[in-house]
Predict the structure of Nudix hydrolase domain-containing protein.
Amino acid sequence: MDYPLPLVTVDAVLLTLRAGALEIALHQRDRAPFKNAMALPGGVVHADEDDHTEASIRRVLREKTGFEPRYLEQLQVFSGKDRDPRQWSLSVSYVALVPAAELEAASQAGFPGFQGFRFVSVDALPPLAFDHASIVTAAVARLRNKSSYSTLPFFLLPERFTLTELQHTYEAILQTRLEKSNFRRKMDAWGVLEDTGEQVGGAQRPARLYRLKDFTLFDRSVG
Amino acid sequence: MDYPLPLVTVDAVLLTLRAGALEIALHQRDRAPFKNAMALPGGVVHADEDDHTEASIRRVLREKTGFEPRYLEQLQVFSGKDRDPRQWSLSVSYVALVPAAELEAASQAGFPGFQGFRFVSVDALPPLAFDHASIVTAAVARLRNKSSYSTLPFFLLPERFTLTELQHTYEAILQTRLEKSNFRRKMDAWGVLEDTGEQVGGAQRPARLYRLKDFTLFDRSVG
């Protein structure tokens, strides 16, 4: 081999939705390069141990946050000689979606890693280490784009939810107000919702609880 | 570093459309592993020389085929310990689109690399080296999916084309017949076509030649 091998890392944009705002998990780096800067959860691929890069990012998230995201999607590669002062490096980046309620539960269960993480609104990010700001921009664009024609937003909701909660989630991601009856007609047409038979809100303003029929991504643009 | 560094490669699915069939460029490997098997054009990232992996694949395509594709898009990473018998490896794969007429011209101009390549229909592929069959499947799915809402198919056409050629290109990619007046209405609504003022076909059945107004990807799903 005539050329040095690149450093291969994985990074995740762990997204959640809290009080109508998209937030991501960041931690403060405790060593160079970019010591003290905020950064995405990530780490080096352990060749011979990780089966593939998806296994690498799952291991890193488990080790650093104690957490297994229900939804994980490969985003894209960021690479080059300038992004890490140490050497030519490559990051395989991922988008992970987590309901805020699951994060609360994990935090209360005392997952050690999560102590080091802060959730920050994507609209108020501090300067980030490496090219992590570009990774976050790409991740948010992917989520917003894909949400317009798929059930991706469901992965930011608890397992059971009201139609109003569902609509507010789509509105927060798409950054637009949706017309209630159109929205409900679209969900009916997709045929992805299942009525749980349960209700919330008491006798005065009861609201039915729904769940996603099949917890795989429904993508209207495919097939 | 406690772990060996992965081998980092780039591979391209160079797609063209000929006689209504999607075809990809393949060459026969002249060394192990997978000696004599057909494979995608690809190569190892030259860290310290390539600015990033997109520069790597452009260099590889230039060296192996003499060709600069007008459209190049990062597809996804394929990685793992089993895909290459030599070591844990990672391929950043790309989709490249090339009009058949440009390939003809390149071939006649005698680009040395292209002698070694064959264009094979994606519906009649031989067994491929490594996990290249999976890369091709992902590339064709990406092209088909994205073509339903974007101007991606234009990159398989010559610079000037008739509306019938444009419709046949969409039909070949989407594997469906499109209704002529609906198709033309959609293209009008997109506002991406420019009348060149030229015609083909003689006085009996003249057809106007169009071109794409702005040769960047128009993606209806974004913005």
In short: Strands of chain B lie at 7-18, 21-28, 38-39, 42-44, 71-80, 89-97, 117-121, 193-200, 207-212. Residues 76 and 166 of chain B are 28 Å apart (CA to CA). Residues 152-212 of chain B form a domain with the Arc Repressor Mutant, subunit A fold (CATH 1.10.10.10).
